[in-house]
Design goal:
The chain is an alpha+beta fold and 219 residues long. It is 41% helix and 19% strand. The relative contact order is 0.19.
Length: 219
Amino acid sequence: MMPDIDEALRYLGVGGEAPEELRQKTKMVAEALAAEVQPRYTFQIFDLTRGGDRFLLSNTDIALTGGTARKMLDQCDRAILLACTLGTRFDALLRTEQVRDMSRAVILDACGSALVESGCDAAEEEIRARFPDRYLTDRFSPGYGDLPLALQPLICAALDTPRRLGIHVTDSLLMNPAKSVTAVIGLSDRPQRARVRGCAYCSMRETCTLRKGGKTCAL
């Protein structure tokens, strides 16, 4: 699996405007990364019930609250929790590159972000194949919109990520290894038109370096 080069360039803040030299260098870094690291993921499907303004996942302590969850899950009867990581190998590669060549390290970091997203895309493809007659929402993560970051430890516990993927959540709610993500996907009998992608919904909108440069990571 290769990182999406265009997505890696968006993480670098240049997108389709990238000079050809940077595009080629990013491609070389992406190919080298793919030869060393591949994303690993796990997911689990839960029955979903509504309790007031909360969505409760069966057999867990997880309650999804807020406008983002309501918008995405309103017509869903099940929810999928997903976790994906590049593991500690990527962290080691990045540390080594930061000592050798900081500019290449920045590109590697962007390629890592793109690669973990490719892993999430692969998980979604597997889920769609498993449920060909049902419809998935966009995936959305703690910290996106008003879905609280405090859900990270609960999602990781429900998926048993320390054992399955080696993902741990720090006291400051960051995930370790660094290139790790969790997400929620709704499952419904109806096509899902709700979309939450965009700066207005992102918890990083005030500090995002892309926005400061007049860019966006939106697809």
